[in-house]
Amino acid sequence: MDAKKILIAAVILAVIVLIFSFTKLATTGCVSASSLPDGSCTPGTVFTDATKDDICRPGYSASVRDVSSSLKREVYESYGIYNHSTGEYEVDHLIPLELGGSNDITNLWPEPADPRPGFHEKDKVENYLHDQVCSGRMQLEEAQNAIATNWTSVYEKIK
């Protein structure tokens, strides 16, 4: 490799390092706002190949669920939670598996039970939106956007 190519590669590498040094990583400094996750840490991600037919098939969620204990620990730590009581939080998928949500850390956050609405109420929203999609009353992408944007507003409409 000649000197010009080495210089170009070094400049490209330096630019990449510079970009990443100013980018907030999805695994540090996350702060939950009441019942909603930190959008810069947990924007919500989906399995891009999940379809309405997939998610409406009985057993779909169980077939794709894959969140290890170590990933759960990483999720808690990213939000600064190092100790908690059983039932105080659950590591939840912002976009639930039943709506095609992924198991990636950018779709997970430690959702509190309290204040309400908490994770029990979000479960009702997930079931409602799943029913809407599977009955054909709502498009999958619309349901994914509704729950990722502000699931509590959906809850207020259906409670």
List keywords for this structure.
159 residues; mainly alpha; two-stranded antiparallel sheet; 6 helices
Sheet-strand content, in percent, reads 5-15%
The domain count comes to 1
Written as H for each helix and E for each strand, in order along the chain, the element string is: HHHHEEHH
The largest sheet, given as strand count, sense and whether it forms a barrel, is: 2 strands, antiparallel
Topology, number of strands: 2
Give the neighbour order of strands across the main sheet.
Answer: 1-2
The structural class is mainly alpha
Helix residue percentage: 40-55%
- Principal-axes geometry comes out as globular
Rg value: 19 Å
Total helical segments? 6
**What do the pLDDT scores average to?**
87
Textual characterization of the structure:
With 159 residues, the chain is mainly α. The protein has one domain (27-158). It is 46% helix and 6% strand. It has helices at 3-21, 52-55, 60-64, 69-78, 119-134, 140-158, and strands at residues 89-93, 108-112. A two-stranded antiparallel sheet has the order 1-2. Helix 5 packs across helix 6 (140-158). It is globular and about 55 Å long. Residues 13-25 have low confidence and may be disordered.
